[in-house]
């Protein structure tokens, strides 16, 4: 009887180890390797006077989309264009002068704060500098 | 002459593989005839549409090229340059939707006739797995043309998966092949759509059909109570099979009619640096879940609304899968199962309608 149990444990453990030795490599294989993200600190976004007042445009910040807005006052602001709800890409609305996500009708104000609809968090703000009429968008500080 | 050759061939095979018992078995299998008999054909229709999917899908593979720079282009090529390419693609898309529809019809018909009861518990469970696989087919196929709608629908769909507690983030990354929906996602969905799910589906479908053949058709309550001489039956082979085939022909005609008159469209190419357009929505059979998630408040108790919603559907699916284990018996006039079924259908219909109207 005792020997029987001993054998069962050995066999059971062996089967488990065998299954593990198959599935562990398979699951690890499916988990994509981390690709180092090009460490972009700032991008040039073209001449400031090219961007019309009361309009917005999506630019590439490394691999991320960023929404550049020129407000009525002429001031230029930049926000992460990725909606904090479910990952859609937002746009500037000229009629309401707000940032809008078409996917589930989410709204943000021009400081990136979520003001209506499903978005749970504000958009990240990207600092903007204008140097010799060139728009320069830099990485938010808290993003490391 | 021809039947002569046929006879000879049959004998040749029979001598080697002993086919006669198999034919006998199929001829002796009886299918009940009663006023709910139409529902016996719904699984068969789903089966036929699956076969159509396999055939049209293999044809598409001859021209389709997965990749951020080639998916959309190759689908456009199929639609504009390849002879009858538009038809093959349209058939594949329409048939996919019809298949999911008929699997739903089939499932609810077996639910309401209580066909899941002992001894058909495993038939029901394999059937439910087939439904989940059919929906996975749809979700993965939707992205393959790499158009705008599909791109954002996939972003949203995989992001929802990411809200699952603990394993969500890992699941999302494995599904997407990285943090974002990119060419890596396309490769994965392609592998899932044309290799992984077809293999799984075929195995489970084989089991499902084997169970049905071994156990014969379920007889509804009223029919079971009849005396043996009052029960009207037809042989499975050839009578039932011939009727099946006739219905398949009708379905094929409807399918071609839809595919020709309402050719499937192709939206503008996906661009990860363009704002989402209006009208992003999942395919209709995901709409009820999607709409329900959307209507939940941001927080329910200590949970995020989304998480609560996902939990709700996971548990709901599990309960539905295990129906044979908890199903209530009919007591007198009250039929709790009938109510349950109607409630589920009402929920799905109401959510779907709201999803499309708003
Ligand atoms: C693509 C998916 C499916 C295919 C191709 C398929 C095919 C079939 C076929 C050909 C039959 C025999 C004829 C009939 O009863 O209609 C059958 C029976 C059955 N199926 Fe499915 N089926 C699918 C999905 C499902 C699903 C989702 C369920 C439920 C969760 C299900 C549950 C059953 C049950 C309980 C039976 C036995 C019915 C009886 O004996 O009366 N099937 N299936
Ligand atoms: S993804 Fe933006 S509101 Fe849902």
Automatic annotation (TrEMBL), chain A:
GO terms for molecular function: 2 iron, 2 sulfur cluster binding; metal ion binding. Pfam families: Rieske. PROSITE patterns: RIESKE. Its cofactor is [2Fe-2S] cluster. SUPFAM superfamilies: ISP domain. CDD domains: Rieske (cd03467). GO terms for cellular component: membrane. The chain crosses the membrane at residues 7-27. Residues 43-137 form the Rieske domain. Keywords: 2Fe-2S, Disulfide bond, Iron, Iron-sulfur, Membrane, Metal-binding, Transmembrane, Transmembrane helix. The keyword GTP-binding does not apply. Coiled coil: none annotated. PANTHER family: CYTOCHROME B-C1 COMPLEX SUBUNIT RIESKE, MITOCHONDRIAL. This is Rieske (2Fe-2S) protein. The lineage of its organism: Bacteria, Pseudomonadati, Calditrichota, Calditrichia, Calditrichales.
